[in-house]
Design a protein that fits this description.
The structure is a single chain. The protein has helices spanning 13-24, 47-54, 93-103, 110-124, 135-147, 183-189, 239-249, 304-311, 315-318, 361-380, 399-405, 466-487, and strands at residues 5-9, 28-32, 70-71, 151-153, 193-195, 198-206, 209-217, 225-230, 233-236, 261-262, 265-271, 286-288, 295-300, 328-335, 340-345, 353-358, 385-387, 418-419, 422-423, 449-451. The chain is an alpha/beta fold and 488 residues long. The protein folds into two domains: 5-37 and 76-84 and 89-125 and 178-260 and 422-487, FAD/NAD(P)-binding domain, CATH 3.50.50; 135-167 and 264-419, Cholesterol Oxidase, domain 2 (2-Layer Sandwich). The strands form seven sheets. It has a five-stranded parallel β-sheet, covered by helices on one side. A four-stranded antiparallel β-sheet has the order 13-14-11-17, sandwiched between helices. β1 (5-9), α1 and β2 form a beta-alpha-beta unit. α5 (135-147) crosses α10 and α10 (361-380) runs antiparallel to α11 (399-405). The longest helix is centred in the last third of the chain and has 22 residues, at 466-487. 54% of the residues are buried. The model has no long low-confidence stretch (mean pLDDT 95). Bound molecules: flavin-adenine dinucleotide (FAD). Flavin-adenine dinucleotide (FAD) binds at residues 9-15, 32-35, 72-76, 79-81, 83-87, 168, 199-200, 237-240, 242, 246, 420-421, 453-454, 464-467, 469.
Length: 488
């Protein structure tokens, strides 16, 4: 099998799985990554520095629309896994059933995915928090227990988390296992090469065979260069926004970049009577699943900068809160978005994409309901006040106050939304009219272009997506490897 060259574009959750599986199976693998490679010493820096090193466009990749949504993703070796919170949720059975029915997605039942989850959980050391729960977690769990709502601690990819509260700047202790710490070194040990500061601009070839990729190299301190690499197969793992942009730049359009989905999220700050360690411990670890799959409630990462942004819209009320941040923790409501978005390469700049998302009316209703539930559980947890970040909404001071303020759907344009979960921009399944690729990620009309990242989820999973991304990527790449071995 050696001598067959696979190119893996992107080194995040999906790309690392591909690199490892292909290299282990004896393929000649090159991983091409737009961002740089960093060591643990580079991690855990200020938000500003981390954004410059690890994030796409320094964290400025908004989803445009009537109600713009702040979105960020990783751009470095390891992709978004380097800056994420490490929460691990397997795809719910109901989502998989829906994908089988609506997209005719084959070979992705709970039983089919089980071995891939088991493998990834062992490879990444997924587990529960080893130490005592931080106060912000214990209070949230207490609120849910008081109300009798289903909740649980979410396992994380951070077996020895020391609670430095640096997840989004790259974990400086290495406890949170981004794939630069876990799978990529194993792929490299098996022979995979890693090209950094290398953005794949286009894929060239005559359908059904992609033949080579055009790469823009931009090593720091060096003049930009264009390079070409030939390939027997190209695995697309640039993530939900950049995979469709690359395909469209390459003239490939069928159901590409037309169906981006997200989990729209509203964050709140809850203020408690005494210190909760919101800035000095790991983010709250419990999720409330009482209203799943449509609404999920959980804990969010907090820094003074994040707090200031959330309070900015109601600054006269919020200003004082900045002096009491030790008593504050951040929580969120996220919904399984029903709206749709698109990805298009920007016309004026080959390094940028234009992202759009139109909220569905149902998204706004669910966010309002979810915010009401969130306020209720936080007051049951003992909060004195909840700062919602909703424009013009006064600070909520009791559960009754929240009921009154949130009895009718909020105005969409009052919601200061963000998201870190994007997917489904190139959906897979056998329904060719609504998918970009077959059930195992092979693009329609192409023999050797395979999707292996968040873009290929048929729709929103309703839970944190990394586990689903890795399971589908592994299933897609192993199907390719086995088909190839069989036809040789
Ligand atoms: C702040 C944050 C917190 C999150 N928290 C969680 C969480 O707790 N749990 C969870 O399950 N999920 C979480 N996620 C989401 C999760 O990290 C992603 O769903 C997952 O990493 C997506 O994997 P991917 O392979 O599709 O893309 P990524 O992991 O983003 O990797 C894509 C890579 O491709 C590279 N690339 C893009 N275009 C090109 C190109 N043209 N040429 C070369 N390289 C390119 C990028 O630089 C990037 O490194 C979070 C995300 C963020 C940003």
């Amino acid at each position: 099998m050696s001598g067959k060259r696979a190119l893996v574009v992107g080194s995040g959750a999906g790309g690392a799985v591909c690199a490892f599986e292909l290299a282990t199976a004896g393929w000649d693998v090159t991983v091409i990554e737009e961002g740089g490679a960093f060591a643990l010493e580079d991690y855990g820096q200020s938000a500003e520095r981390a954004m410059a090193l690890l994030y796409r466009h320094r964290g400025m990749t908004p989803l445009l629309g009537a109600n713009p949504i702040a979105y960020v993703e990783g751009c470095c070796v390891g992709g978004s896994t380097e800056i994420n919170s490490g929460f691990w949720r397997r795809t719910p059975d109901a989502t998989l059933d829906e994908w089988a029915t609506d997209y005719d997605l084959r070979g992705a039942s709970a039983g089919d995915l089980e071995p891939h989850f088991v493998w990834a959980e062992a490879a990444l050391h997924v587990g529960l928090h080893a130490g005592k729960w931080p106060t912000s977690t214990a209070l949230f769990a207490h609120g849910a227990t008081t109300l009798g709502w289903a909740h649980h601690e979410v396992p994380r990819i951070a077996p020895n988390c020391r609670g430095t509260n640096r997840c989004a700047s790259g974990c400086p202790t290495g406890a949170k296992q981004g794939v630069s710490q876990s799978l990529l070194p194993r792929a490299q040990a098996a022979g995979a090469r890693l090209l950094t500061h290398a953005r794949v601009h286009q894929i060239h070839g005559d359908a059904p065979h992609a033949q080579r990729v055009e790469i823009l190299r931009h090593e720091p301190g060096q003049p930009p260069q264009t390079e070409w690499l030939t390939a027997d197969a190209v695995f697309l793992a640039c993530g939900a926004t950049e995979t469709p942009a690359l395909l469209r730049r390459s003239g490939i359009h069928h159901n590409i970049g037309d169906s981006l989905q997200i989990h729209p999220m509203l964050k709140v700050l809850a203020e408690f009577p005494s210190s909760v360690g919101g800035l000095s411990s790991v983010l709250p670890l419990v999720q409330i699943t009482e209203f799943a799959p449509d609404i999920s409630l959980g804990g969010s990462y907090l820094t003074p900068g994040h707090a200031a942004v959330l309070l900015a819209d109601n600054w006269p009320q919020g200003r004082d809160v900045m002096t009491r941040l030790d008593r504050v923790a951040a929580y969120y409501v996220a919904v399984r978005g029903r709206g749709h978005g698109s990805v298009r390469p920007a016309t004026a700049d080959a390094t940028r994409s234009t992202l759009r998302y139109a909220m569905a009316p149902q998204d706004v209703e669910l966010l309002t309901q979810g915010l009401r539930h969130l306020a209720r559980v936080l007051f049951a947890a003992g909060a004195l006040a909840v700062h919602t970040g909703v424009t013009s909404m006064p600070t909520l001071t009791s559960a009754q106050h929240a009921e009154r303020a949130l009895h009718a759907p909020l105005r969409a344009d009052s919601l200061n939304l963000s998201t870190v979960h994007a997917f489904a921009s190139c959906p897979i399944g056998e329904r060719q009219a609504k998918t970009a690729a077959n059930s195992f990620g092979k693009l329609w009309g192409w023999q050797n272009l395979i999707l292996a990242d968040a873009s290929c989820l048929p729709s929103s999973p309703g839970v944190n997506p990394q586990a689903t991304v890795m399971a589908l990527a592994r299933r897609n790449v192993r199907a390719w490897i086995s088909d190839h071995a069989a036809t040789r």
